[in-house]
Design goal:
The chain has about 400 residues and is α/β, with parallel strands linked by helices. It has helices spanning about 10-15, 40-45, 60-75, 85-95, 110-120, 135-145, 165-175, 190, 225-240, 245-255, 255-275, 295-300, 315-325, 355-360, 380-390; strands at about 80-85, 105, 130, 150-155, 180-185, 200-205, 220-225, 280-285, 310-315, 330, 340-345, 370. The strands form two sheets. A seven-stranded mixed β-sheet has the order 1-7-6-5-4-2-3, sandwiched between helices. The chain has a five-stranded mixed β-sheet with strand order 8-9-12-11-10, covered by helices on one side. Bound molecules: pyridoxal-5'-phosphate.
Length: about 400
């Protein structure tokens, strides 16, 4: 047990772990699909919930449980549930909450997969979705109807790094009896704990900062004990449970979350400032810059601003492609939050399937580049950007 007042790193290192048998210091990987019983009575007690225990890994598993406990500690939530991907976490959460006839108010600035789920999948089951500019609380307020069940948003948003005012949204939602779900992937619990601002449920693509090494695909949901219990019933049926080996990798990655985030924060800020002063850059999106329109809110809400820096090149799509393809250290790959710096053009990756009209509305232009800054030496990342900019 970790005392409640311990710091974030201590919680990240020690929290939730369960040392194995034979004196094993590290939590073991229980790579088993099924658990054995010595009697029918014991099995029935577990399946009926009369006694605690494990039955089948799609339902629950001790390694998965360890990472769930650690995440609940880090997010300051009562409990957590782990999933096979961020999308499994998001879709299972929403499906556990809505029924046919319900209405959802969702931010228009969402990860492409989440947006597609809201626009193409949910309506097939009789759930209507209104997309709003979530950085404007009045738009959310005006979109709420009598049958609105939940408000869904990301902060910071991807790829234009807008900040959503969580205190204002959760206060509004509570007044209206609506549940709030926030995707905190781009911040991680080191930089932002949405539950401390009154948000009900936090979802993560653990594939990003939480795993942190570009080697695990996972998702996590944090919330009340009551909701997580309900969510796990849905997870059991939809089947997006996390594999024990992936859970173990996540457990290992989380131990260094604070160290990695500190470096992502420092590198992100340094590179954003460098880009802002560069004559070949038209615009920089980074909430840590005083020029960001919501910088004051970001400072109030977040401990640091993370490693995602988006910017527009002065030029067109072809010039931007040339810049991206000339990078050597920064790798063209569609993810973020890991130790290595990755780069993408949102028009050819996260927003490839989004219509040109919607992209324009979201500020996802042909010249936009998203840099997911890693933990390398910042001078080396800057030198790489500089040599690629010199070629255009
Ligand atoms: C903010 C955000 N949420 C959710 C997801 C989906 O997560 P996953 O790829 O782990 O399914 C992503 C993926 O890029 C993301 O960036």
């Amino acid at each position: 047990m970790i005392p409640e007042n311990e710091g974030f790193s201590t919680k990240a290192v020690h929290g939730g772990e369960s040392r194995g048998s034979e004196g094993s210091f590290v939590s073991p990987i229980y790579e088993t699909s099924v658990f054995a019983f010595s009697s029918t009575k014991q099995l029935v007690n577990v399946i009926s919930g009369k006694t605690e225990g494990y039955l089948y890994t799609r339902f629950d598993n001790p390694t998965v449980r360890a990472v769930e406990r650690k995440m609940a500690i880090l997010e300051n939530s009562e409990d957590a549930a782990a999933f096979s991907s961020g999308m499994a976490a998001i879709t299972t959460t929403v499906l556990a909450l809505v029924s046919s006839g319900d209405h959802v108010v969702a931010s228009q600035d969402l990860y492409g997969g989440t947006l597609t789920f809201f626009q193409e999948i949910l309506p097939k089951f009789g759930v209507k979705v209104s997309l709003v500019e979530a950085a404007n609380v009045d738009e959310i307020k005006n979109a709420i109807q009598n049958n609105t069940r939940l408000i869904y948003a990301e902060t910071p948003t991807n790829p234009t790094l807008k900040i959503v005012d969580l205190r204002k949204i959760s206060t509004l939602a509570k007044k209206k009896g609506v549940i709030t779900v926030v995707d905190g992937t781009l911040a991680s619990p080191y930089n932002l704990k949405p539950i401390e601002f009154g948000v009900d449920i936090v979802v993560h693509s653990a594939t990003k900062y939480l795993g942190g090494h570009h080697d695990v695909t996972a998702g996590v949901v944090c919330g009340s004990k009551e909701f997580i219990q309900k969510l796990k019933k849905t997870r059991k049926i939809l089947g997006g449970t996390l594999d024990p080996t992936a859970a173990w990798l996540l457990l290992r990655g989380l131990k260094t979350l604070a160290l990695r985030m500190e470096r992502h924060n420092q590198n992100g800020m340094r590179i954003a400032k460098y880009l802002e002063s560069h004559p070949k850059i038209a615009k920089v999106y980074y909430p840590g810059l005083p020029s960001h329109p919501q910088h004051a809110l970001a400072k109030r809400q977040m401990r640091g601003f993370g490693g995602v820096v988006s910017f527009e090149i002065k030029g067109d799509f072809e010039k931007t492609v040339k810049f991206v393809e000339n990078l050597k250290l920064c790798v063209l790959a569609a993810s973020l939050g890991g130790t290595e710096t990755l780069v993408t053009q949102p028009t050819t990756s996260s927003h490839y399937f989004i219509s040109p009209e919607q992209r324009q509305k979201l500020g996802v232009t042909d010249q936009l580049v998203r840099l997911a800054v890693g933990i390398e030496d910042p001078e080396d990342i800057i030198a790489d950007i500089e040599q690629a900019l010199n070629k255009i």
